[in-house]
Design brief:
The complex is a heterotrimer of chains A (312), B (502) and C (284). Chain B is of the alpha+beta class and 502 residues long. Chain B is 32% helix and 20% strand. With 284 residues, chain C is mainly alpha-helical. Chain C contains 11 helices and no strands. The radius of gyration of chain C is 23 Å and the shape is elongated. The chains are: A mainly alpha (312), B alpha+beta (502), C mainly alpha (284). At the A-B interface, helix 2, helix 3, helix 5, helix 7 and helix 8 of A face helix 1, helix 6 and helix 12 of B.
């Protein structure tokens, strides 16, 4: 199939997904119990004030009518206003998106080189002691709760040693790097093991493949086989995994953002969920979903460009 | 050439690193779990916004360092013989935009809080009948009836004066950008869900104030993170240090925790509208089963005082000598056995706060000892409030605080069954208490008022309208580089008089 | 595999265990020990996990309390042992519910193809579009904290991984001769699906499920940290860790031991997963 047709078909697939996403993000907050208005007005608000605000925000209208208003607004690029802050949801998201994006970029920049190094080392010496050590470490890394590690790091590197700030986003590029160091390392320590295990698995599988045996039979040096054949063939599955992981990180950054007081999308999400700020939750889940769809799309197109066989 | 280049690179790298240092070094950095959700004083009665309003908007009166009512925007005031007419004379003061603060602005601000349908908390000025601008600097307030706490209520957070011209011209936008303020500070930047940065208001009426360069009110939900930030020098003040970390912070010579008295009281609400707590014997047994001294010790490590009355111990007319339904598990057990309680399991509703959860666990264990079975149901704040207000619970440990030291608002909120919120949603309703509430508000004689509130405390504590648990102080930690900063019982920072060593 | 092993044939004469057996054995041992402890918690645990002792709060590990006590004087060892029930249960149900849904969707989608496949796969796309943790937080946050709602959230969200995995396997198995033969012989679809296709895809699901259980337990612990975890006074490791973290300086044991428990159980799960996958790969 032609590459352009592939792109066209892939884009067409997104339409029903987008409709589904809008429905899910809408119903998510509308069908559950809990009163947002009381939280916004404060505990001592009178029942009259609560009723007046519900009416003013259209929260007393039918579900369908609220959904249609919502979709109508979203299509025009309007995510509505925050119940709590009375500010456009999009403004709130736009303010925090770059911070979370920076954090994720930082985590990836830290994780990917380490992962490749560890996975290649482990795979090339499969079953040997470096492999065993790396596997053990990665299992440990996967099983330690991120928030626990984060609290310990803040104590050790922030207070005891005073090397890194334990909070905030900092000013300027270097400031960001400095302030987000601990959050990024904490996340990386969990992400790297997951990626390493998968990449190692993919590499080992390739090493068992028939064509590798054929190469060996031809007497090609092992190092060359590895670099020319095994590694390139392991890139695709890892690329796909990376896509999944980026999507996961967008959500997974919530915990470190809370522990390290990084005001990003995750912190906004938690505040909105606990405060029942309906339209912020809707807007955020929608934006999260769109970003994920976009990342998946890019990964798919990249995969297709690298390996035309997947187009068919 | 080459070394010079290296040096240049190093220098520029170093300068970049210096840019990375916080640019707002002279501001006082305050970390709190409570958020500023709006800059409009009418829009919220939640902690966080309350603290903010006080810094942005001056009220007619203020509470001075000694805790007494003192002149604010009103320089003098006169109360008529029958207590129904209050005439206030404004001082020569200006808004942050340089416009004069007039009687028109005062009338506008007060009526706005009273009359807007979704005004969050109109209760403090509910007795205001008419407000009139006699001339540019004279305001005449007429009350529906004599009301002792009224002057004190004019000091409450949402009675701050806003600019009539600006709010009428811009509507809600007036509280989002270029906010016109009348208090010691102006808004430098508001980043919702992150922080509010305030700068001194050059037109503030108190000359020589504020004494500092402003502050950053930073919102940090995680308690351990707040403490870590304080200890690593990223904050100067922390609100709500977890009780478990108080010892650690006070052991550090760089920080002080004065444990300022608050008007907060933790209470166990009981649902009077359904069994078993519709039965007074079960309520009294439940109260007597709770070892409040042990609870205060376990949860706050002794920082809080066990409570003996249904109202906070820092309020006027609080009765320290009241001793009813004290801890007595044997008597409680006997009462339960003869009360007719059928042994069905209760629901203790609890919102997600470490402190409330611990109280719930202790409550459950102590009640189990007298044969009162209970299960705990944790709910997020949204569900908690909708279940509480609709009476879908049997018991819940929670708290409230009072805006002023006058007990009127507190008893209306927590004890009165006819004041709109069913005695803090316990559905306790005693017509005698309701009558006392109105009598106490209308009585202008101090001694008689004291007697009325003492009687109210005696009745409600005896009938267990709710179980008083403990009176906690504010667990605020301050860097020793700060001077003159504290928190008043009404949740206001004394920020304008604070200074920060450099 | 060493660099020369392919050229010089591996030494078959030395008696060697199958690859992965050691991991599998250690994993089964660890998980088995935890299951035993959990099953016999009433006998093994020295005390009632919820019994308060306000006279002995924050007691360090010692003869009276091997792992110390927490801020309400509860015995940590007993809570850790009872917590195993909750956490193993959490891993079990948290994996089983999405697994069943996912397997069913994957089987149907892959086997029938066509319109069914298209619709089900769009459903998968929609669910995948929402970041896992965000959706779980939103669902648990909105429905209210507690394990039951966590399972609901997992059931709604986590099935997609299984559905995709199964569908991919089914597409391969479908073309195998014996399935084609069964079809030609007129066996009903259901019988083919469950008797012939399912057994063939179970291997890869099992391997994934053990790792997934670790994720379920870790994500559950994170929810506890965000205040959305198990109901008090339930002894659940994640909640114990997050409740204990303000005491990290004063009383490290409160969050250390539940943390250790969590790491060992997860380690057991991952070792089983690893062992299984290596053995399976060798046998193929």
């Amino acid at each position: 199939m032609h590459y352009l047709t592939f792109i066209g078909r892939r884009l067409l697939h997104i339409v029903p997904v987008l409709i589904g996403i809008s429905l899910v993000s809408f119903l998510l907050v509308m069908l559950v119990p809990g009163d947002p208005v009381r939280l916004v007005l404060g505990p001592r608000a009178t029942d009259d004030a609560v009723a007046a605000m519900r009416e003013a925000w259209g929260l007393d209208r039918s579900l369908l009518s609220q959904y249609l208003t919502y979709v109508g607004n979203v299509v025009q690029g309007n995510l509505g206003d925050s119940l709590k802050y009375r500010l456009p949801v999009w403004d709130l998201i736009a303010q925090y998106l770059p911070r979370t994006a920076f954090l994720i970029g930082y985590v990836l920049a830290m994780t990917v080189p380490v992962t490749v190094l560890l996975a290649v080392t482990a795979a090339r010496r499969e079953g040997d002691w470096p492999d065993q050590v790396i596997r053990l470490l990665s299992v440990l890394g996967m099983t330690i709760p991120v928030f626990w590690l984060a609290v310990i790091f803040a104590r050790l590197f922030g207070i005891q040693l005073g090397w890194f700030p334990v909070s905030g986003y900092g000013e300027g590029f270097l400031g960001h790097l400095h302030h987000l160091f601990l959050p990024a390392v904490s996340t990386s320590l969990w992400l790297a093991p997951v990626l390493t295990r998968n990449l190692r698995g993919a590499l080992v599988q390739q090493m068992d493949a028939d064509y590798v045996a054929a190469c060996r039979a031809k007497g090609l040096p092992e190092r060359l086989i590895f670099r020319r054949h095994i590694l390139p063939n392991s890139v695709l599955p890892t690329l796909n995994l990376l896509g999944v992981m980026i999507a996961f990180l967008i959500g997974g950054s919530v915990v470190v953002e809370i522990v390290y007081a990084v005001p990003g999308l995750g912190a906004l999400m938690i505040g909105a969920v606990l405060g029942r700020d309906y339209f912020v939750i809707q807007g955020l889940t929608l934006v999260y979903a769109l970003v994920t769809v976009l990342v998946t799309l890019v990964i798919d197109l990249l995969t297709a460009a690298i390996d035309p066989r997947t187009v068919g | 050439m080459k070394p010079a280049l290296t040096r240049m690179l190093l220098a520029s790298a170093a300068s970049l690193l210096f840019i990375a240092a916080p640019a707002l070094a002279d501001k006082i950095r305050i970390g709190s779990p409570y958020q500023t959700s709006t800059l409009d004083p009418m829009r919220s009665a939640a902690a966080g916004s309350i603290e903010t309003f006080g810094q942005l908007y001056s009220r007619l009166l203020r509470i001075d360092e000694a805790g007494q009512l003192a002149p604010g925007l009103a320089e003098t005031w006169e109360v008529s013989e029958d207590g129904k007419i209050i005439t206030l004379t404004l001082r020569d003061a200006k808004f942050s935009n340089g416009e004069p603060i007039t009687a028109e602005d005062v009338v506008f601000s007060l009526l706005r809080v009273r009359d807007t349908p979704d005004s969050a908390y109109p209760a403090p000025i509910q007795t205001l009948d008419t407000a009139e601008a006699v001339d540019a600097s004279t305001v005449k307030l007429t009350l529906k009836h004599a009301f002792a706490p009224f002057l004190g209520n004019l000091e409450v957070f949402n009675a701050g004066i806003v600019s009539k011209a600006d709010v009428e011209a811009r509507g809600e936008a007036a509280f989002v950008e270029n906010v016109v303020t009348s208090g010691p500070y102006m808004v430098e930047a508001w980043i919702p869900n992150d922080r509010l940065i305030i700068a001194p208001n050059p037109n503030y009426w108190r000359t020589g104030f504020p004494k500092n360069e402003g502050a950053e009110l930073i919102e940090i939900p995680a308690a351990t993170t707040r403490v870590s930030m304080l200890l690593s020098g990223e904050l100067d003040v922390v609100r709500d240090v977890p009780w478990s970390q108080v010892a650690e912070v006070t052991a550090n010579p760089g920080y002080a925790m004065p444990m300022e008295p608050s008007t907060v009281v933790y209470v166990g609400l009981l649902n009077h509208a359904r069994p078993p707590f519709d039965n007074i014997a079960v309520r009294q047994a439940a109260a007597m089963a709770l070892d409040t001294a042990a609870i205060a010790q376990a949860v706050t490590f002794g920082a809080a005082k066990p409570a003996n009355s249904t109202i906070p111990n820092t309020l006027k007319y609080y009765d320290p000598d009241l001793k009813v339904n004290g801890f007595d598990p044997a008597a409680a057990k006997a009462m339960i056995d003869s009360s007719g309680y059928d042994g069905s399991e209760l629901t203790i509703l609890v919102s997600e706060s470490a402190e409330s959860e611990q109280q719930a666990v202790l409550m459950q264990a102590l009640w189990a000892q007298i044969g009162l079975k209970a299960k705990i149901e944790k709910a997020d704040a949204g569900t908690f409030w909708s279940r509480l207000t609709s009476g879908d619970y049997d018991a819940t440990p929670t708290w409230y605080y009072n805006e002023t030291t006058d007990p009127d608002l507190a008893v209306r909120w927590a004890l009165c069954g006819a004041c709109g919120n069913n005695a803090y949603y316990t559905f306790y309703a005693n017509p005698e208490v309701d009558k006392l509430v109105e009598q106490g508000a209308a009585e202008l004689d101090e001694t008689k008022r004291a007697a009325i509130y003492a009687e109210m405390q005696r009745i409600t504590t005896t009938e267990v309208s709710q179980i008083p648990i403990y009176y906690p102080p504010f667990a605020n930690a301050y860097s020793t580089a700060l001077h003159g900063l504290g928190m008043t019982p009404a949740l206001q920072w004394t920020l304008e008089g604070a200074t920060l060593d450099k | 595999m060493t660099e020369t092993s392919a050229i010089n044939l591996p030494a078959r004469d030395r008696p060697r265990l199958k690859k992965g057996t050691i991991e599998l054995a250690i994993g089964v041992l660890i998980v088995g020990a935890w299951i035993l402890a959990a099953a016999g918690a009433g006998i093994v645990a020295p005390a009632d996990p919820n019994a308060l002792d306000l006279a002995a709060v924050l007691a360090p590990p010692g003869p009276a309390h091997l792992m110390g006590t927490d801020n309400l004087g509860r015995d940590i060892l007993s809570r850790v042992i009872h917590g195993a029930r909750i956490d193993i249960w959490m891993g079990f149900i948290g994996v089983l519910a999405p697994l069943c849904i996912g397997v069913l969707v994957g089987l149907v989608s892959g086997y029938y193809g066509g319109m069914t496949d298209t619709i089900l796969m769009r459903l998968v796309d929609i669910t995948v579009a929402f970041p896992f943790f965000i959706l779980v937080i939103a669902i648990v946050g909105l429905l209210g904290p507690g394990l039951a709602n966590y399972f609901v959230a997992l059931g709604l969200v986590a099935w997609v991984a299984y559905a995709r995995l199964v569908r991919a396997e089914v597409l391969v198995v479908k073309r195998l001769e014996f399935v084609q033969a069964a079809k030609a012989l007129g066996f009903p679809d259901r019988a083919i699906l469950f008797r012939h296709v399912l057994p063939n895809v179970l291997g890869s699901i099992t391997i994934y499920a053990w790792t997934d259980a670790v994720m379920v337990i870790l994500a559950g612990a994170s929810l506890g940290f965000l205040g959305l975890g198990a109901q008090p006074p339930t002894a659940e490791w994640g909640v114990m860790i997050s409740d204990g973290q303000p005491y990290i300086v004063q009383a490290w044991w409160i969050c250390f031991f539940p943390g250790l428990a969590m790491v060992t159980l997860s380690l057991g799960f991952i070792l089983i997963s690893d062992g299984l996958s290596r053995r399976l790969r060798v046998s193929q």
